[in-house]
Amino acid sequence: MTIGSQLAWDDTVLPFQLDASDIRGRVARLDGVLDGILRQHDYPPQVEALVAEMAVLTALIGQTVKLRWKLSLQVQSKGPVRMIATDYYGPEKEGDVARIRAYATYDADRLTDGAPFEQVGEGYFAILIDQGKGMTPYQGITPLAGGSLAACAESYFAQSEQLPTRFQLSFGRSSEPGIAEHWRAGGVMLQHMPKASPLVAKGEGSGEVLTADDLLDGDGSDNWNRANILLDTVEEMELIGPQLAPSDLLLRLFHEEQPRVYDTQPVRFGCTCSEDRVRQSLSIYSARDISTMTTDEGRVTADCQFCGAHYDLDPATVGFEAEDQSGE
Fold first, then answer.
1. Considering the entire predicted model, what is its pTM?
2. Which of 53, 191, 319, 320 sits between 20 and 30 A of 118, alpha carbons compared?
3. Which among 243, 244, 113, 105 has a CA at the least distance from the CA of 176?
C-alpha cells in the first residue's frame, strides 16, 4: 500500500451492509484523530487506553447520526477513572468531515496496575443525542459491566434500542518504520437490521440487562451467529495496521455474506470551544459572582478539558453586568 492510499483511509468510517445476513455495520480507522485527542493530555497508560477505546466507539456509533446532530458518549464511575466524555459532531453538510473530541478525569493515586477497565468501578455508560435547537436531547444508559467499554455499548444497544450489536476493537501505540510513534485504533461494528425482539413481542423479560442472544431467534439468530464467528477471526493488525484497507478487510472477513459498501465518512479531531462560548457561559453571573472567580492577577480564566485551550478574560467584560465593549 502506498502512502497516498494509506492516508486515504486513515481517520475514516466506512459503512457497509451484509446483504446475505440482514446485517449492517461500520469499519473505523483512527490515526491523527486519536493522536489529536491524546496529545492534549498526559494521561497514564490505563487512562489513554480507555479514552482510545471510547474514541473508536464514538466514531463507529456516531456515523449513524444525521447531519449537524451531536452524539455524546459518557462514562460516570466511582472508580479511579471518574469520567470519560466524548463528542461526535455530524458534518455540517454532505461531503464535510465529522469531528470528534474526548477527555477523561481520574484520581492518579487510586489507579492500579490492573487492566484499563478495572480502573472504572460502579457506574454507568450513557449515550446522548442532541438533535439541535428546539429538540429534546435523547439519553440512554446502561450499567458498567462486561469487562470493556465495548461490552457496555453492546448492552446499551440490546437494552435501549433492541438492536443486536457487536464491536471488535483494537488500539495502541504504533511504531511504523520511519514514522514517529503514535496512537492508532481500528474497529468493526456489526448490527442486526431492526426488527421486533422476540422478548418484546411476547411481553417477556426478566428485568436483567439484555444481550444480542435475547433479541433473535430462527434465521436471524443463525445469520447473526455466523457473522460473529467470522468477525472472531479478525486479527489485531487487520484492524489497525496500514497494510489492509477497510474494504479489503470486509472482503477478507465476509466475502460469502455479500458485503456492500457505502460512502466513506472522514473524521477529524475538533473542538467547539471558543471565547464567545466562555463568555456566554458566564453571562448568567453578576459582577459580584464574577469577582469570586477572579484570580489574584485580576483576570477570569477558563480551560477547555477537551482541547486544552486557555481563555484569559477581563472580569469587567463578562457577566450580565459587563461593561459595554462596543464603544457605543
1. 0.83
2. 191
3. 243
